[in-house]
Amino acid sequence: MRDTIKNIYPLGFPWQTQDPFLFCVYHLDHYPKGNEEMGPAASLEGRNLGNDFTIKDGWRMYHGQTIPGFPYHPHRGFETITIVNKGYCDHSDSLGAAGRFGEGDVQWMTAGRGVQHSEMFPLLKTEEGNPLELFQIWLNLPKANKFVDPHFAMLWHEDIPVVKTNGTTVKVMAGSFKGNKAPHPAPNSWAADPENEVAVWNIYLDPNTEFVLPATSNPIHRSLYFYDGDHCTVSDEKITPNHGIDLQSDQEVVLRSGDKKASFLMLQGKPINEPVAKYGPFVMNTDQEIQQAMQEYQLTQFGGWPWPYSDNVHDRNKGRFAQYPDGTLVEK
Asked: SUPFAM superfamilies recorded for this chain (predicted)?
């Protein structure tokens, strides 16, 4: 039924989100072979290095000068969920934590009272291209948790449920589907309370496939992003790619793919319903708190930067790993 759809809108950069989500961006870059520095083995001429967000030859450098990505920058007052379906991301932060993750892994970082981190995309393959597909989602923290200690966690792809049913694949990174629960989110996250029904799913439909999106217990915010395919129908409404659909969550919704595979991201959760004050990488409840965050960052640098480079990357031969602030090392 059409009344299950609340809104349909074109996807920009970043994507439009609903409370408790603040931001969602989709990166798809067809990077070329890598060079000795793990940057592109291609000319960087004609690029606005340091602020290269225009797709040229199928890829962007973002804020990177030699390696694509985002050199160190601060965050306060929210969480980042970074999903890397293709390629790799190298993480380094002011807590001394580090990691290399990709090929389906998810990083969940609670900025809390303040942290600096870098997110770089090392081009590890020198004999072939290095495609990158990445989502970054900003999930708000309620006022009570704005100043919790920062937290860094890895959700390895081996531990993330992937549920296959009747031509549909659902990857469950937060929430649960058909009794399959995602790994635990960060402890102070809005997603940590099951009553908030936070869900982050990738949904893939084979061609000409039907899938029923289950209803939630209560009416909450649910957004579905159709980012790849030829067309789909949502409650019998035909949708073209690169559109978002806000749905009535407490009703089942029928999705149908077209003649090609259809790919979706779903973000869902009970709204926090608190004032939001945003300035760049800081998200608080009032403008006064934003000013305080800026002043504290100028004074403390949120712990400083313990790494040799602002765009720190790890050794080329290093596999997937996570080094936690307490010194614990996990290698995959």
From this structure: RmlC-like cupins
